[in-house]
Amino acid sequence: MSSSLKLLAEIRQSSERRPFEVLKLSEPLLNKGSISQAGDDVWLVYEQVFIAAIDEGEIDVAKAVLEILHKRFGGSQRVKRLYGMINEAVGYPDEAKKLYDEMLEKDATNVLASKRLIALLKSQGQYSIAIQELVSYLDTHGNDFEAWLELAHLYLANHLYAQAAFCLEEVILQQPANHYFHLCYAEVNYTMGCLDIALKEYLRVVELSTDNVRGFYGIKLAADRILDITSHGAGKSRDSSHFKVENAPQKATLERLSQLATERLVAIYSGTNDATKKTVEAWLKL
Amino acid sequence: MIGSLSLKAVLGTTLALSSISTLVHGLFPDEAGRIDWYREQMGVPKKIVPYTGGNGTSIFAITHRNVLASLNPNSGEIIWRQVFGDSEPINTLQLRDDQALTHSGANESYVRVWDAATGSLKWEFSHPEAPTYKPSSGAAAFLDGNKDVLAVVGDSLVRLSADQSKPVWEVSLNRTATYKRIVVQGDVAYAIGDATQTSKARQQRLHVLEVNLATGSLAKQYDIANGMSLGSDNLVVIESKEYGAYVVWREEKNIVWMIHRLGMIKPMWDIYHAKIVQVELMPEDMLASTISELDLDPGLNENVPRFALTYTKEGKTKTVVVEMFRTDDKLDMRKVVGFRSDNGVVASFGSALPVNEANKSAQKQRTVVSVRSYNNSVAWRIYSDDKAPTHTGEFAYNPATYGPVTGASLYYTNNDEPRVLVQTGGGLLAALAPNTDGPLWSRDESLAHATDMAFMELPPPASSAEHAAKATDPSVVNSPLVRYILRWVETTKSLTMWVSSGFGLLDSTDNTASSSADLASRSVAEALVPTSPLTTGDHFGFRKLSIFGTSTGVVAALSTQDGTRSWTHWFADNGTSVKVEHIFVTRRTQPLSEDAALVTVVGRNARGKTVVADLDALTGLPASENAIQWLASGHTKVFELPVVDTATNQQLIGIITDGKEPQFRIWPSTAAGAKAFFAISDTVFFDLGGSKGSIQLRGYSIERSSELEISSWNKDSVASTKRQWAFDLPEGEILVKETEYRNGAQNTALLGRVLGDRSVLYKYINPHLVTLATLRSEGGIGIYFIDRVSGRLLHSAIHKNARVTAKQPFLGIQTENRVIYQLWQDGSFAPVSSNSTGKHQATTSGYITVVAELFESDKPDTREDSKAFSSYDILLPSVVTTAFTAPEAASALGITRTGSHITTRDVLFGLVSNKLLSLPDQLFDPRRPKEAPTKDEQAEGLVPYAAPLVLDPKRVLSHYNTVAGIKFISSAPTHLESTSLVASFGLDMFFTRTSPSGTFDQLSPSFSKVNLVVTTLALVIGCLLGGPMVRRKMTNQAWE
C-alpha cells in the first residue's frame, strides 16, 4: 500500500479533520486510479475524500466521488447522508433536512443522521429545535458524552446555566479524568454563584493538570470571593444571598488556598517577560 | 420419560463400548507378521531319514529337542512336526509304508506310529515305569510284511499290533542287557543290547536275544563280541533281506574283523582286511582304523549288507565302502567305493537309493556321498562305484559361523536328482544340489537350543544429520543452525524419496508381499551369512539386535524386527561345541565414541571348563586378540557388576569359580577393571547353593585384595570371598528353584501405591530379594523370601498340597515389589499363608498362580525412616498374597519392560498350549477385594477378586502362530514409553511388540497422513474462496 494511503488511514483513524492534506494526498490516487490498492478500505477513502472536498469547497471532486459511491452502494443510507452533506455544502439545507428526516424515518436510531440533522439546525440558528432534537437523541444515546457536551454548549449559548451544568455533570461522569470538563463545570458553577462547588472543581482541575493557570485563577477568585462574603456577613454584601457557600472550607483553609494560588501563579509567570509579570502582579494585587 | 430412557441407553452403550475398546489388545490382521515374526523350529537333528513313500520324498528327523518333524526336501520347510515332552527323548525313528515309528521316553516309554504324510497319530502304546528298567534301553522296529511293531519298552520286549495297539505277546527281559537295537529277519527278530555286567562276567559284550515273532517264545540268547558295546567305532550291525543280518567288529588290539551272523551261534567267520582294501594294511594301520554303518535305515537295504572302513596309511586317510557277497556257499567282502577323506577334515557320508524303479535297477548299488569341509568351503561327491564320482559340488561356507560339517545324508528328488543334506556341529542343516552355488535351503536349528539372550541397542540411523555432519567435519555439528539446516536437508531428501516412491503406497505393497512370502517360508533360514550385517537401528528403538547363546556353541545376532541374521559365531574347543550359558551386552554403542559395542559370552566346554569371550556386537568377531580366554576351572555363577571399567568403558562381569572357597574373578581381568571393581566391591554380594537339590543357601561378600594385587591384576587373578551367612532349609526340605530379579525387573517409577483415600502404601523393593521354593518331604512346597545381603528370612509360606515334578514345574518371577509363581496344587485350593485355617477349600486339582506383594508397612503413609536402604536395619516387609487358579500351565513367565516403567507391566505367559499370552498386572493385584469393594477400593480401581485367571484369547500375543516349547520370555524397552519388545524362545521363536497401557504415544495405524494433508488443503482452499466473499459482505453491511 502506498504511503499516501497509509497516511490517509492514519488521519481517518485519529478522526482528525485535515481536509487540505487529505485532498492533497488523494489527488494523485484518484487521478492514477491507484486508489484501488486500498483494497476493501477503498470506500472509506472515497468517503474521507468526499468529506474533505466538501470542507475545502471542492464540490466537483465531491460530486465525482459521490457518483462512484452511489454506483457501488446505490440506495445505501450512508450514501444518502453524504447527499445530505453535499446539499448542506452547496446551500440547500432544506433538501438536506428532508434527506435526513427520510433516513430517520426509516431508522430512528441512525446516529449519523441525527447528528447531521442537529448540526444542520444549529448552523441555521434554530437552537431551540436543535436542543429539542439533541435531548431526544440523548434519551436514546445517553453514553455519547460528546453529544452531552454539545448540548451543554447549546444551553450556555442560551444562558441556561443550570441545564448546562447538568449536561457537564453527565460528561464528567463519563470522562472523569479530563480536567477540561471539570474546568467548564467549575466556571459554569462560578457563573451561577455556586462558589463552593466551583472552588472544589477548580481544585480538581489543578489536581488533574499540574500548574493549570486557569485553575489557579479560578481558585484565587473563588476563595477570595467566599472569604469576602463570609467575612463581611450576609447583610453587607449586595446580593450575597445569590451565592452558595455553605459547603465551603474553613476560613483558614480558604486563605491558604488563596495564598497557594497566588504563589503558584507568580511562580508560573516568573519565567515570562516583565510586562506579563507586571500585569499578573497587578491583578493579584501584590 | 421415553426420551430419558433412550438417553440412558445411549450413554450406557457408549460407556460399554468405550470400556471394551480399552480392553481389546488384539492386533489388526494386516499387522500380523509385520510387527511380529515367528520362526518354527525343530532342534538339532539326532537322526535324519529321507524317505520316499506314496507322496514322494520327504525328510524325517528326530531331534535333540524331542521333535519329530517332516521337512519338504525342496524348501526345507516343516511340513508337520510333533513336539514331545521335555522329559521324553525320542530314541528311534523308522519309516515303513507311509508310517513313521517312534520310540520315546526313558523308563516310562511310548511307542507311536504316525501317518508320514500328515503327521497324525495312528496309534500309540505306552508302558508305565518299570522297576527293573535299564537306563537308556529302548528300541522299536516295524515287522516285515505287516504293520506290527516290535519294541523294547521298560523291561519288556513286546509285539504290538497296529489294529489293537496292545501287546500281541510280551517277553520280560529280566535285566539281561540294555537293549538298543532290534533286527527283524523273516519270522524271527533279534534284540541286541549291551549285556549287563555281573560279578561273574565283568567284561563288556553284546547280548543277543532271538525271539519267534509269531509266538514270542525265546529261541535262544547268547553273548558275543567281548569288550565291545553298541555304538562303538569298531562295531557295526548290518542288515539285508537277502544275506541276513550280521554283527561285524574288531576287538581292541586285534587286527582281524569278527563277523557274526545273527542267529547262528557257530560258525563265525573271520575276515582279513587285505581282501577288502586290496592293499596290505600294516597291523598298526589296522589298529587305528574304524568301521561305521552306512545306511540310515538299515532295514530297508534290500540287497547286500555294507559298511564303511576308514583307515590311515602312509599319512593318507581313506574311506572304503565294503560290501558283502557270496560265492557259492562262502561269504566274502569286497570294496565298492573308496575315496580320500583326509586333509585334516573328517569325511562324512550317507547313502540312498534312487526313487524310480528304472534307476534302481540301473544303479545296482546304492550311491554314497562324501562331504568334506575345508578352508572356507564344503565339497561333496557322490559315488556309485569305485570310479569317478557321478556328481560333485562345492559351496562357500565359513566354519566359524556354524562349525564344521559333522554329518551328511543323501536323498533323491522325485526326478532322481541327488541332494546332499549336511549338518554342522553348530546345528545348521543345509541341502545342497549339483550345479547350484549356495545351498538349496538351510535351517539354523541352533536357536532351538538357546540358553540365554540379550538385547543390544543399535545406534540410530546413520542418515540422520548428525551422522552426516560427523562424517565430514565434527566441528560443524556444534552449531545449532548447521544442525537445523542439515536436518532439513535430510528431511527434504527423504520426502522426495517418499514422493518418488509413490507416497509410500508402492513401498507398503512391497512389504506386504514380502511379509506374506515370509509367512510361507518363515521356517527357512534366509541366508547363511547376510551380505550386510545390521549396524543401525531405527528411530523408535524397535530394531535391536537380539544376541542368542546356544548349547550348540553358536552365538547368533538376529534383528528383533524381522529375525534376519546379522552374524553368527561358533564357539568350539578342539572341534566340539562349547555350551554357551550367558550373554551380556557389556558395552553399548555410544553416539560419539569409537568404541565398538561388545557382547561378552560365557560358556562351558564338555569337560566343564569355562570360556569367556568378548565379541564385537556388530560383527560377531572376537574384539581383540585376547578376547577369548579359558579359565582354569568351571564357573558356578556369573553376574553383571554395577560398575564400568573406566579404561575400556566396558561393563564388568563377576564370575564365581570353584575352589576350596568360591573364588571371584573379574572380566575383563585387567588392572583397570580390578581398580574400578574394588572401588565398589563393598556393595557386591552373591549367594551360592541356589541349585536344585540344595539344602543350604550361602551368602558371600568379596574380600578386598591388596593394592599390589590390584595393580598387577591379570587373567589368573582371583579375589577371595567371605561367607557372610548360611540359610539352612528346614529338615526334610530340598530346594526346587531360586528366583531373583532379572533384567532390571526391580526398577520402578513409583515408590508406592496411591490408595483411594490418597494415602500411600510404600513398596518394599529390595534388589537383593531372593525367592526360594522347596520341596517338603511330608509333601507340599515351601516358599522363602530371603535377603541376599544379610541372609534374613523376610517371609515364608507353605503350600501344603502343592507338588513339583518334571511335568508340573515350579515357575517364579520377581517384578518390582511382587513375586509371582506358578505351581501345581492337589485336591484343594488352600490359601497361601501358613497360619490360615483354610477358608477357601475346593476339591479340584490344578495349577495355581500365586502373587505376593511386598510393602514396607501394612499401614498407609508409613515407611522406613532412613535415607539409605539397609538390609540389616529394615523392618520385615508386609506381604499381601493372593492365589488364582490357572486353567493351563505355563512353561515360562516374563514381564514387559519399558523405558521409564511408567507404562504398566504385563505379565507374559508362555503356555503349554503353544501360545504367548500377556495379562495386565492389575489382574495380579493381591489387594483385589474379596468382598464387595469399598468406595476407596473403587476409587483405587481395584478389580473385584475372582479365583479363576481368565486366559483371554484376545490377549494372545502370538495370535495364530503355534509357538511351541517356550522356555524363555525376554523383554526390552523401546524409545517409546508405551511400547515394549517381547521375545519368546525355547523351541520356536516369536518376537513382537506390545503396548500394555495402549499406544498412548503413537498415532494409531489407521491414522491417515494423506487425509490430514487433504483436509488441510481443503481448509486452505475454503479460506481462499470464502475470504473475499465474507469481506464483500462485511463491506456491504458497513455501507447499508
From TrEMBL, chain A:
Belongs to the EMC2 family. InterPro entries: EMC2-like, TPR-like_helical_dom_sf, TPR_EMC2. Part of the endoplasmic reticulum membrane protein complex (EMC) that enables the energy-independent insertion into endoplasmic reticulum membranes of newly synthesized membrane proteins. The keyword Iron does not apply. This is ER membrane protein complex subunit 2. Residues 80-189 form the EMC2 TPR-like domain. The lineage of its organism: Eukaryota, Fungi, Fungi incertae sedis, Zoopagomycota, Kickxellomycotina. It comes from the Eukaryota. The gene is oca3. It holds the Pfam family TPR_EMC2.
UniProtKB/TrEMBL annotation, chain B:
Keywords: Endoplasmic reticulum, Glycoprotein, Membrane, Signal, Transmembrane, Transmembrane helix, WD repeat. PROSITE patterns: WD_REPEATS_2 (PS50082). Belongs to the EMC1 family. One of its GO terms (cellular component) is EMC complex. PANTHER family: ER MEMBRANE PROTEIN COMPLEX SUBUNIT 1. GO terms for biological process: protein folding in endoplasmic reticulum. The chain crosses the membrane at residues 1010-1030. Residues 1-26 form the signal peptide. InterPro entries: Beta-prop_EMC1_1st, EMC1, EMC1_C, Quinoprotein_ADH-like_sf, WD40/YVTN_repeat-like_dom_sf, WD40_rpt. It is a single-pass type I membrane protein. Its main location: endoplasmic reticulum. Component of the ER membrane protein complex (EMC). Coiled coil: none annotated. WD repeats lie at residues 83-124. It is found in: Endoplasmic reticulum membrane. SUPFAM superfamilies: Quinoprotein alcohol dehydrogenase-like (SSF50998). Residues 815-1039 form the ER membrane protein complex subunit 1 C-terminal domain. It comes from Coemansia spiralis. This is ER membrane protein complex subunit 1.
